[in-house]
Write a structure and sequence with these properties.
The complex is a heterodimer of chains A (700) and B (176). Chain A is of the alpha+beta class and 700 residues long. In chain A, 44% of the residues lie in helices and 20% in strands. Chain A folds into five domains: 12-149, HPT domain (Four Helix Bundle (Hemerythrin (Met), subunit A)), CATH 1.20.120; 168-314; 322-382, Orthogonal Bundle (Helix Hairpins), CATH 1.10.287; 384-560, Histidine kinase-like ATPase, C-terminal domain (Heat Shock Protein 90), CATH 3.30.565.10; 565-699, SH3 Domains (SH3 type barrels, Roll), CATH 2.30.30.40. Chain A is built from 23 helices and 22 strands. A six-stranded mixed sheet of chain A has the order 14-18-19-17-16-15. A five-stranded mixed sheet of chain A has the order 6-8-9-11-10. In chain A, strand 10 and strand 11 form a beta hairpin. Chain A is globular and about 105 Å long. Chain B has one domain: CheA-289, Domain 4 (OB fold (Dihydrolipoamide Acetyltransferase, E2P), Beta Barrel), CATH 2.40.50.180. Classes of the chains: A alpha+beta (700), B alpha+beta (176). Chain A binds chain B through residues 329-331, 333-334, 337, 576, 621-625, 662-672, 674, 677, 679, 683-687, and chain B through 54-60, 66-69, 71-76, 105-107, 167-170.
Chain lengths: 700, 176
């Protein structure tokens, strides 16, 4: 175990965290989109708790990801949003349209920040106005929306950035535009904000190159202007330069040097990106031709990052909706069945006469198999994709909290459906964070309790009983039953003393439930477990908690095999075919009926190498009709699950094959002892036995 | 769709009745179960297939014949003849499966034969008579359609298929 952890730790050191950036950006983008939709749909007068919770979760997820990847500006702003939203969903504040506006603007600001981190934009988004308005809103105050409406203009309290007091003449080029009237919005903007300055169009507005040119007299900094303009036109389409004859730039022209000075220090650069030649770049901008200066400086500074980005883009990924892949898989499944049928029908043909046909069919068979395998592999990815995120995250987290934590991972090679991996990542992240933040104690505390100073968080993935089980274990302080129940009552949750431990542990899944005394950047708002439960339940899975106070806790996430491929062993009983998961098959052998003994008149056992095992006859469990009474079940397959073994009686072993697990419940309902179904080569459906449930059945 | 002024623009008679039917009655797929003729809302029907032996599901009620593979989707098959208490339920070359789409689920219903698609005006639908049948639940009969000398038993197939005693769906889904 120790070896494994050190291995995974060293592996993580070599891992470029940026491989996960893209995932984060995509997720954050989706979260922002859904937050915006929710905000827009929010009825301020009668806000639905569920909606507020959902908005909160969006912000929380973005914050979590941003903190993991070290995008502190994003985390900071989302933290503020979260604080406000938390007050809303606790009904400490009543939602107002103003709040919604500020939240929406924050969403835009976050997009800007994310774009900058992605290298797609160079605008440093100033969020100080937003941040301060959250502080006011959280105290129940109101904010002057005008001040917030244009995020970059400094709030009254914030120190004003250096700006020239004298008016400057600038040339503004907007374009290329598809709709020329967009530029007119800028003129309107100047009318609305009177102290911005004056604007005059320089051309008739029908320039052939798609550009509109304006003469702007202003005392505002370029930065502020650009940010204002971006309300109407895309940032890349705005070009500001000193106004000079012929639109060119002449060194020494009045106004030109000022522009450079006026700029915020570090404007256009990734000032938090390491190794950025900030000073050098700003030095070069001064002599750049005016037109490109604002724009060109940024890409230049961004170059190293952009290159890295491009490199990772080379091994590019394609995000395709799962439905499309599912459709593909279904089609391939149909193809396989058709191919099997053709092969069967052609068997009776004389190979001499139909040589070409049979060789064609052989090719078809091979190609079909290859196609099926490749299509299937689209969806399957190893758990290490998820687990690899954690070492780094934990290290940072432990350092922040002053704790010593070791991460042990097992079963990284367990393959999981892509859709499941995507959906399980967030819940697992929450669980690991929770373990580190709440579970693992401070080193001194651990030493005082006689535990090793270094806490251990163990992640285990395995296939079990037709499910995938992912465990997050820690050897921390565990859960305190009394504290949980007390807290639950404070929250107005019905929590009788008589509730079982399992029920008490389940309390932490209630929305807004947190036993942490302090709300931290890491966790403690109680949103994590709520999200975990919700996400996992939506996947048709379950979460179980086991804990012993002082010794740690274990969260087991059990997910059904929705579309996992499984190695199966097909067995025949009567006329029917059933599939046993090959991973749970231990051995099989032929038995004489007299070796099966009854216990207490009902249960039957068989002796296998000095071990007595319960016997289950498939024929009886599934009430298989018999047409051929000569035949009896005399093959025994020993299966193992959940730490138990049973011997299953079947008629015959038909073979091993890879099967696609299909959900019975999507159109039917849960069937006892059956975990799913699959389609056999002849197009018939075969049921997959739930080994876990069979083993449990033998225990009762 | 407002039809109030439509009949006025058209000649009286069959045509007018037909246009009203589209608005209130609707189109029904008719099929036979033994000697009886039934009609169900055509919009619930996904397709019609010939019967193929399904994979039996253990310990299911006898009218659930099992599951079949419908282009990669596992679909349960219900024999309506057994469910609705027909004396015989034979499986021959005329036996067909009506694949239904109810509550976003796909279910196959075995019937003796499919007849045709009929458009029924609202005024040709009579309320369902009160039947005191102990074995068959008649609450899913929405009305009796009279077409010439035929009598159609109109059925709320969605309600029937999602009813609890059908056992096709988990309680939560059926209630949704």
């Amino acid at each position: 175990m120790a070896d494994m952890s050190s291995e995974s730790a060293s592996a993580s050191a070599g891992i470029d965290l940026s491989q996960f950036y893209q995932v984060f950006f995509e997720e954050a983008g989706e979260n922002l989109d859904s937050m915006e939709q929710l905000l827009l749909a929010l009825d301020v007068e009668a806000a639905d708790d569920e909606e507020l919770n959902a908005i909160f979760r969006c912000a929380h997820s973005i914050k979590g990801g941003a903190a993991t990847f070290g995008f502190s500006d994003v985390a900071e702003l989302t933290h503020q949003m979260e604080t406000l939203l938390d007050k809303l969903r606790r009904h400490e504040l009543k939602p107002t349209t103003q709040m919604v506006d500020v939240l929406l603007q924050s969403g835009d600001a976050l997009r800007g920040q994310l774009a900058r981190h992605q290298g797609a934009s160079s605008v440093v988004v100033d969020t100080s106005a937003l941040v301060s308005s959250y502080k006011i809103l959280c105290e129940g105050g109101t904010v002057d929306l005008k001040a917030v409406a244009a995020p970059p203009p400094p709030p009254a309290a914030a120190p004003a950035p250096p700006r020239t007091t004298t008016a400057r003449l600038l040339e503004l080029r907007v374009g290329p535009l598809t709709d020329m009237s967009l530029a007119d919005n800028l003129v309107e903007l100047f009318k609305e904000i009177t102290d911005l300055g004056t604007i005059e169009p320089l051309d008739a507005g029908t320039a052939a190159d798609g550009y509109r040119r304006f003469k702007v007299l202003t005392s505002s900094a370029d930065n502020d202007l650009l940010d204002l303009f971006t309300f109407h036109v895309a940032r890349e389409q705005v070009h500001l330069s000193a106004f000079g004859p012929g639109f060119g730039f002449h060194e020494g022209a009045p106004g030109a040097p000022e522009i450079v000075e006026d700029k915020d220090p570090g404007y256009g650069f990734f000032d938090d990106a390491p190794g950025m030649p900030g000073a050098g770049a700003s030095g070069t901008t001064e002599v750049k031709p005016v037109e490109t200066q604002a724009v060109a400086a940024a890409p230049k500074a961004a170059a190293p990052k952009a290159e890295a980005k491009a490199a990772s883009m080379d091994q590019s990924t394609l995000r395709v909706s799962i439905e499309k892949v599912d459709q593909l898989i279904n089609l391939v499944g149909e193809l396989v069945i058709t191919q099997a049928m053709l092969a069967q029908n052609s068997r009776g043909l004389d190979p001499g006469l139909y040589q070409q046909l049979s060789s064609g069919l052989a090719d078809l068979e091979r190609n079909t198999r290859d196609l099926q395998e490749s299509v299937m592999s689209i969806r399957m990815i190893p758990m290490s994709m998820v687990f690899n995120r954690f070492p780094r995250m934990l290290r940072d987290l432990a350092a922040k909290l002053g704790k010593k934590v070791e991460l042990v991972t097992q079963g990284e090679a367990t393959e999981l459906d892509k859709s499941l991996v995507e959906k399980i990542t967030d819940p697992l992240t929450h669980l690991v964070r929770n373990s580190c933040d709440h579970g693992i104690e401070m080193p001194e505390e651990r030493a005082a309790k006689g535990k090793p100073e270094q806490g251990t968080i163990t992640l285990v993935a395995s296939h079990q009983g037709g499910s995938i089980v992912i465990e997050v274990r820690d050897d921390g302080r565990g859960l305190n039953r009394e504290k949980l129940i007390k807290k639950a009552r404070e929250k107005g949750i019905d929590a009788p003393d008589s509730m079982s431990d399992a029920e008490a542990w389940g309390l932490i899944f209630a929305p807004g439930f947190s036993t942490a005394e302090q709300v931290t950047d890491v966790s403690g708002r109680g949103v994590g477990m709520d999200v975990v439960k919700k996400n996992i339940t939506s996947l048709g899975g379950t979460v179980e908690i086991d804990s012993a106070e002082g010794y740690g806790m274990k969260v087991s996430v059990r997910l059904p095999l929705t579309l996992a491929i499984m190695d199966g062993m097909s067995v025949g009983v009567g006329e029917e075919v059933y599939i046993l998961p090959l991973s749970s098959v231990v051995e099989s052998f032929q038995v004489e009926s007299n070796t099966i003994k009854t216990v207490a008149g009902s249960g039957r056992v068989v002796e296998v190498r000095d071990e007595y095992m319960p016997v289950l006859a498939i024929e009886e469990i599934f009430a298989v009709p018999r047409f051929d009474f000569e035949k009896t079940s005399n093959i025994m397959v020993v299966i193992e699950a959940e730490g138990g073994r049973v011997a299953v009686l079947v008629d015959e072993l038909l073979g091993q094959q890879q099967v696609v697990v299909k959900n019975l419940e999507s159109n039917y309902r849960k069937v006892t002892d059956v975990s799913g179904a699959t389609i056999m080569g002849d197009g018939r459906v075969a049921l997959i036995l739930d080994v876990g449930s069979l083993v449990r059945r033998s225990r009762h | 769709m407002s039809t109030s002024n439509v009949p006025a623009l058209r000649p009286e008679g069959a045509l007018a009745a037909k246009s009203q039917a589209g608005a209130s009655g609707g189109e029904f797929l008719t099929f036979r179960l033994g000697a009886e003729e039934y009609g169900i809302d055509i919009l619930k029907v996904q397709e019609i297939r010939s019967y193929e032996p399904p994979t039996r599901i253990a310990n299911a009620p006898d009218f659930i014949k099992g599951v079949v593979n419908l282009r990669g989707v596992i679909v349960p098959i219900v024999d309506l003849r057994l469910k609705l208490g027909c004396p015989t339920a034979e499986y021959n070359s005329f036996t067909v499966v009506i694949v239904l789409n109810v509550k976003n689920r796909v279910v196959g219903a075995v019937v003796d034969s499919v007849s045709d698609v009929l458009e029924l005006a609202k005024d040709s639908i009579r309320p369902a008579p009160e039947l005191s049948s102990s074995s068959v639940d008649t609450s899913f009969i929405t009305g009796i359609g009279a077409v010439a000398d035929r009598m159609l038993i109109l059925m709320d197939i969605e309600g029937l298929m999602s009813s609890a005693d059908m056992g096709l769906m988990e309680a939560a889904v059926a209630a949704a």
